[in-house]
Design goal:
The complex is a heterodimer of chains A (294) and B (303). Chain A is built from nine helices and ten strands. Chain A has helices at 58-65, 107-117, 122-135, 151-162, 181-196, 208-214, 232-236, 251-263, 279-286; strands at residues 14-23, 32-42, 47-51, 73-78, 81-82, 92-95, 169-173, 200-204, 217-222, 225-231. Chain A starts with 13 loop residues before the first strand and ends in an 8-residue tail after the last helix. Chain B is mainly alpha-helical and 303 residues long. In chain B, 78% of the residues lie in helices and 0% in strands. Classes of the chains: A alpha/beta (294), B mainly alpha (303). The interface between A and B is large, with 47 and 34 residues.
């Protein structure tokens, strides 16, 4: 991991302070207020999900965090550095939505190119490329041109390039967009693995179930504003309900539970039945294709 | 995943290594787009021209050979300069490749510089290969002509050492001389200026086609810039605003006529090192100027 800008434990990985962005109008187009007075922090080691409908300002916020566009008001910092300073990008890996890479390069050459841009050299770069190709499951397709990759493979090579310099922060814009369930699960598992390694991740996705599985905290944006923000557990738990899942419970046990509930005047049995597996889990159990070197 | 931390060098605001990485990637990109098919076409034209026009006088044969080959060289360099440069930035933007590059520690000026350097390396390399082929064909043609002339003198029993030396001197003047390489260098400089101009236009243009059309227009205008400048500045315009406007046109539109050293090279005239130095300096001035303005546009560009 890059040692630039060593941080104190309390220093957030990302701060967005009072960020507003207005896209200038033209003769035929009115100015657009894409984001208004947005503020949030992402702590180091956290997985932060930024969710919201299309056009709510998620990608604009991410671009501001990467210095790809200038805030009209406010600012963003990455490990204490202004996100507009190029040096702040040493600590960041970015996977854009639907990424395209140079079609003329192979997967291996793509990683070599981005690794060199990050200042990696020689055997270290070679080893790192091999590790990344292995990690994203593209070892067998490493010498194929990126122009011939499927959408899932493009996402995975994109993830590999984002991680090539072992950044402390990963910004992933719709990392599972257009990817089949198996590929999507792989990316989800990878995010969990990276989180366990202490890498901070900011992610957007429309797959809310997956976001729920990986995120520590989420921010919900709508019309350029942050409408809800906080720990995922706090946001989604229903305070006045309790879930009990039993395995191999007999009809007698279930009957006793019903009786007990009936004795409590305030309590009410909301539902009782067999939990269902998810369609995603069913799909993954029924198919064996791994996506490796598709 | 790496267990050992990677050796990432501290960020420096300018890195030749990053620029070189961008430049070589640009060369690979253009090479794999098969842009150098032009080289093959050129070689065929040069070899074809070498064996054409047998009915003309020896001097005319050599002049025509150089004329045709220089024409092909100029077309190659200008087309590559405009098309290749115009393709690079808008395509990176459309494909969002630019996002992944600029989200790495790469300043925008390095990106522009790397792209321009890549195109210049490609044009320079292409012209170098063409120069070698061109020189080879001219040398062969010149050798055949000298041999024919000496054979004719011998047939007429006039092959005295003086006559042979005179024939060699005359033919050699129109053959392979250092001026030919100087002419190729001037062609490269002109293409470099056009590339820098195309890069500047692509920084604010909305599409590749727009960049190509506008740069092509400036290239045509640039060849007549000196005439227009003389007309505007010295003869007909008196008002300050008119002079100011024409001065702006003179600055914005490059004086591409200044790089025309091809004619003296074809005639076999000696091109002085002062003249070469002067056009090299002028080209450097244009390139630095255009690239700086390109950066000022690009740095403000919202991605």
């Amino acid at each position: 991991m890059s040692e630039a800008a060593a941080t104190t434990p309390l220093q957030p990985a990302v701060t967005v302070e009072n960020f507003s962005k207005v896209f200038k109008g033209t003769l035929s187009r009115k100015p657009v207020l894409a984001v208004r007075e947005l503020s949030f922090n992402v702590q180091a080691g956290e997985v932060y999900g930024l969710i919201g409908p299309n056009g709510c300002g998620k990608s604009t916020t991410m671009k501001a965090m990467l210095g790809l566009l200038k805030p009209t008001l406010g600012k963003a910092t990455i490990f204490g550095r202004d996100s507009e300073s190029v040096a702040s990008r040493q600590d960041v890996g970015f996977l854009p939505e639907n990424p395209y890479f140079y079609k003329h390069l192979t997967g291996r050459e793509t990683l070599h190119f981005y690794g060199k841009l990050c200042g990696l050299r020689g055997s270290e770069l070679k080893d790192r490329m091999a590790t990344m190709l292995d990690l994203v499951g593209l070892k067998n397709a490493a010498d194929r041109r990126v122009g011939g990759y499927s959408k899932g493979m493009l996402q995975r090579i994109g993830l590999a390039q984002a991680m090539i310099q072992d950044p402390r922060l990963l910004i992933l814009d719709e990392p599972t967009a257009g990817v089949d369930p198996a590929g999507s699960r792989r990316i989800r598992d990878l995010i969990i693995e990276l989180k366990e390694r202490g890498i901070t991740i900011v992610v957007t996705s429309h797959l809310l179930e997956q976001m729920q599985e990986v995120c520590d905290r989420v921010g919900i944006m709508s019309q350029g504003r942050m409408v809800r923000e906080g720990r995922l557990e706090d946001l989604i738990s229903v305070e006045n309900q309790t879930e009990i899942i039993l395995e191999n419970a007999s009809a007698e046990t279930l009957s006793k539970i019903r009786e007990l509930v009936g004795q409590d005047a305030a309590a009410k049995l909301v539902s009782l039945g067999k939990p269902r597996t998810t369609l995603e889990r069913l799909f993954l159990e029924s198919t064996i294709q791994t996506g490796e070197g598709e | 995943m790496s267990a050992v931390p990677l050796t990432i060098h501290p960020y420096s605001s300018f890195s030749l290594s990053r620029v070189w990485t961008l430049a070589t990637n640009t060369v690979t990109q253009l090479l794999r787009m098969r842009i150098l098919w032009f080289l093959l076409v050129f070689s065929l034209i040069a070899v074809g021209a070498g064996f054409a026009f047998p009915a003309m006088s020896p001097e005319q044969q050599l002049k025509l050979l150089k004329d045709v080959a220089f024409g092909a060289l100029q077309i190659f360099s200008i087309v590559v300069a405009i098309a290749a440069t115009a393709l690079l930035l808008p395509r990176d933007l459309e494909d969002r490749t630019l996002y992944t590059i600029l989200s790495k520690p790469v300043p925008r000026y390095e990106y522009l510089f790397g792209k321009l350097l890549g195109v210049l390396l490609l044009i320079g390399g292409g012209l170098l290969v063409m120069d070698v082929i061109f020189s080879g064909v001219v040398w062969l043609k010149q050798s055949f002509i000298i041999a024919d002339q000496i054979a004719a003198l011998e047939h007429e029993q006039q092959a005295s050492p003086e006559n042979v030396a005179a024939v060699k001197a005359i033919i050699s003047k129109y053959g392979l001389t250092i001026s030919l390489h100087a002419g190729v260098w001037a062609v490269f400089l002109k293409a470099a200026v056009i590339s820098a101009l195309a890069l500047l236009i692509s920084c604010f243009a909305s599409s590749t086609l727009f960049t190509i059309v506008i740069t092509f227009g400036f290239t045509i205008a640039g060849h007549g810039q000196q005439l227009a400048r003389d007309w505007f500045l010295h003869k007909h315009l008196t008002a300050g605003w008119e002079k100011g406007l024409s001065a702006i046109i003179a600055v914005v539109c490059p004086d591409l006529g200044a790089f025309d050293l091809v004619e003296p090279a074809i005639r076999g005239d000696v091109i002085s090192s002062a003249a070469l130095l002067s056009v090299t300096g002028l080209a450097a001035l244009y390139i630095v100027g255009y690239t700086t303005v390109a950066y000022l546009f690009f740095v403000e560009k919202e991605l």
